[in-house]
Amino acid sequence: MKNCTTLILLVFIFGCKKGASQDAPTWQLVWSDEFNEEGTMDPTKWLAIRGDGCPSLCGWGNNELEYYRDGNKDVWQEGGLLHLNAQFHPNTEHPYTSAKITSLENWLYGKIEVRAKLPGGRGTWPAIWMLPQKDTYGGWPKSGEIDIMEYVGYNPNWVVGTVHTEAFNHTKGTQKSGTIETPTAEQEFHVYSIEWTADKIDFFLDEQLYFTFQKRDGHYSTWPFDQKFYIIINLAIGGDWGGLKGIDDSIFPQQLQIDYVRVYQK
Q1: What span, in angstroms and rounded, lies between the C-alpha atoms of 171 and 67?
Q2: Is residue 201 a contact partner of residue 111, using CB atoms and an 8 Å limit?
Q3: Which of 64, 113, 150, 195 is flagged as catalytic?
Q4: How many Cβ atoms sit within 10 Å of the Cβ of residue 33?
Q5: What are phi and psi of 18, to 5 degrees?
């Protein structure tokens, strides 16, 4: 009878463990935009930014040359895609115009996916990134930045994912980043994504993991990613990185095209 009882107990324990594994939390879609309507983007989900960051942050802090506009020639939905358009206007007050949008929703942790086709040409600098809703630990970079995807046209075929914190940022040359070769970034759509949890941020291209930023000691200077962040999508022109090799004015217009943005949480 003792052996039978032991056997029953073992079956029960292993059965419970198997069931617990099957019931583990999975990613659930909590927010998305598929851009299926024609015309202007959804104003309940996105805000279009206007200007050049002056006077407090001219060039958006990176010496960029674009002036963001919010008209239907700059950012619009068509054919199931969101289009962010960059143009060259010689001999005008704002020779380079483009588009930048920010999400009105914020999230703490999650899986963020953006399917996009990138612009090319020397001087372009498209990005899909995140900033904190509040400067909980102070102004940039103390409260953090997550760059889901950056791409500079003078260095084609390479996509970069990066995090910035007080300890790790590009002003010190200590930023933490990973790169992955993407020869068709300008010709085809790819899914750029992160999986952000309380302990790490994983960066993916088409579900291929290429970089992980791990939580260290938990101090905000190395891990400010315990607060809500929002999504930013923009097409910069020139700047400290994008304009490192100058700008080829013959490439314009250029477009950053977005098929969808999806946010999942466990």
Answers
A1: 24
A2: no
A3: 150
A4: 20
A5: -65, -45
Q: Kindly report the average pLDDT of the chain as a whole number.
A: 92
**Residue 250 region, left (φ>0) first, then alpha (ψ -120 to 50), else beta?**
alpha
- State the catalytic residue, choosing from 64, 113, 145, 195: 145
Higher pLDDT, 217 or 137: 137
Give me 143's structure tokens: 């409260």
In this structure, the strands spanning 67-68 and 96-98 are parallel
- What is the Cα–Cα distance from 75 to 125, expressed in whole angstroms? 16
Indicate if 38 belongs to the active site.
no
Q: Any residues with CB less than 8 A from the CB of 203 and at least 6 apart, and which?
A: 148, 161, 178, 193, 194, 209, 210, 211, 212, 213
CA distances (Å), origin 50, targets 71, 75, 123, 163, 234: 10, 11, 20, 25, 11
- Give the residue carrying structure tokens 């190395």: 222
Q: CA–CA separation, 6 vs 121, rounded Å? A: 70
Helix (H, G, I), strand (E, B) or coil at 3: helix
Report which residue type is found at 72: N
Domains of the chain: residue spans and CATH: 36-265 (2.60.120.200)
Instruction: Pick the closest to residue 131 from 35, 182, 57 (CA basis).
Output: 57
The per-residue pLDDT for 218 is 86
Is residue 145 among the annotated active site residues? yes
Res 12 pLDDT > 50: no
